[in-house]
Amino acid sequence: VVCLVAYHIFFMLFVWSYWKTIFTLPMNPSKEFHLSYSDKESLEKEPRGESQQEVLRRAAKDLPIYTRTMSGAIRYCDRCHLVKPDRCHHCSVCDKCILKMDHHCPWVNNCVGFSNYKFFLLFLAYSLLYCLFIAATDLQYFIKFWTNGLPDTQAKFHIMFLFFAAAMFSVSLSSLFGYHCWLVSKNKSTLEVFRAPIFRHRTDKNGFSLGFSKNLRQVFGDEKKYWLLPVFSSLGDGCSFPTCLVNQDPEQASTPGGLNSSSKNENHLFPAKPLRDSQSHLLTDTPPWSETTAKAEKGKVGMSNPALTMENET
């Protein structure tokens, strides 16, 4: 009876998470990231190069973006006509920009991104548990098959096939699930593993990592009771993400350029910038910026935010 109940629980959770992975539409960037009609016209009129980058600088001056292209330019999608949010990529299969895109999965015929990444992880987890459960309960009959302990019927070949299929899927799913668990612990996506995110000053493969606990909460949320259920509980809006490069202590001394001069943090040179309210609580370990501190920093670095200043093409 216990095995039968466990079987049905695993099967229901497996089907539920698989359904949510398939039919949850990937989230697209909000309207604020789309260029206005006047900006589109200006971008089309201007020749390629610095003049176009000036148009994009104006469009992105109030947007919470930190990443850049390899040449240092603001990331822009000429297919969707929008400034790409951090960790957003254009899917050639879906033909649209996907927030925090991980990959396009042909097994679910859908993009795996911010809106359904938790469902995809649970789908892998419950698929693995389901296969392990089948292999474990079928093992005794599989042993009897080789010891001639089963009746000589065609059913015994079904038992052999079921065990081999469950065991093979268990091996493949365990490797895939383990890989994505590692991605969650490092707060990375599959695309960011192959190409590390590029910030204004340097490339940093761990730029979005906030530590294991906070990385886990970004995907599964703060409410632990929802972690094992295929219900959306991820933190944030998918357009802005906290990063260790902007989690700086305002008590520390800064250079006139707004960069921390401490040799301890020389690998994380990036100007501080306010995050959205939906993400700021992940950085509660850091003293919040006060209005006086913000004004003082603004006087040091000038009226424009260095995070949105374009580097010249080289």
Automatic annotation (TrEMBL):
This is Palmitoyltransferase. It catalyses: L-cysteinyl-[protein] + hexadecanoyl-CoA = S-hexadecanoyl-L-cysteinyl-[protein] + CoA. One of its GO terms (molecular function) is protein-cysteine S-palmitoyltransferase activity. The keyword Calcium does not apply. PROSITE patterns: DHHC. InterPro entries: Palmitoyltrfase_DHHC, PFA4/ZDH16/20/ERF2-like. The chain crosses the membrane at residues 6-25, 119-137, 157-179. Residues 252-314 are annotated as: Disordered. Residues 74-193 form the Palmitoyltransferase DHHC domain. One of its GO terms (cellular component) is membrane. It is a multi-pass membrane protein. It is found in: Membrane. Belongs to the DHHC palmitoyltransferase family. The DHHC domain is required for palmitoyltransferase activity. Its main location: membrane. Its EC number is 2.3.1.225. Keywords: Acyltransferase, Membrane, Transferase, Transmembrane, Transmembrane helix. The lineage of its organism: Eukaryota, Metazoa, Chordata, Craniata, Vertebrata. Residues 252-264, 280-293 have a biased composition (Polar residues). The keyword rRNA-binding does not apply. It is an enzyme of class 2 (transferase).
